[in-house]
Amino acid sequence: MNLFKYSSPQTFYPLAGKLIPWLAAGAAILIVYGLYIGLLVAPTDFQQGDAYRIIYVHVPAAWFSMFLYVVMAGYAILGLTLNAKLSYMMAKSIAPTGAMFTFVALVTGAFWGKPTWGAWWVWDARLTSELILLFLYIGYMSLQAAIDDTRRSDRASAILAIVGVINVPIIYFSVKWWNTLHQGSSINLTSSPSMAAIILKAMLIMALGFWLYSVAVILIRVRREIEDRERNTAWLNEFKE
Length: 241
Prior knowledge:
Structural class: mainly alpha
Largest sheet: none
Distance between the termini: 28 Å
Number of domains: 1
Number of helices: 8
Order of helices and strands: HHHHHHHH
């Protein structure tokens, strides 16, 4: 099977349409199941009480705020180096979902921080760098919207995305590099998780649900972008007939 053929908008468009319903259904099932475990099955934390349960949304949202930015920057690199139209479209389509997860991470973090730290916001290294990530997403989308010429907007926003990716490791390692209020990572590749198995299970289910949701929404947005950019092509008109 030649996967490279799907790098063309003409072949990618129908494939995306077929995948979206399955991805959306899987995302809904996993998110509902993850929330059920996290909110109703997992035990109450002996220190934070039930306030900690926001972790099931906050942590996966924070993960995907960073992960989607890296993926967006990766597509931006492909767009610049290979002059691939679909790569630019993918990068553009990822940005709103990444910005949404960044916003959710910041808001849920504020709701979590109030009962644990006594403040909605502190200028903590991780919180500040996460806020910068939101500004990078907004800057990328604003640059796309500000330039009328599609090729110029794609290239300019791609450069911004690539430069901004340096902020992702800063977010991740901020709790190690600086003395911060934010707790360290509970899950890493070098040691066992420092949480109960049921909590980890719910969090990973939520993360998988967020992943399927992200792919579904991004594919919907990519199809709309293809429709906009390829609206005068014969293949798209034939496909819609």
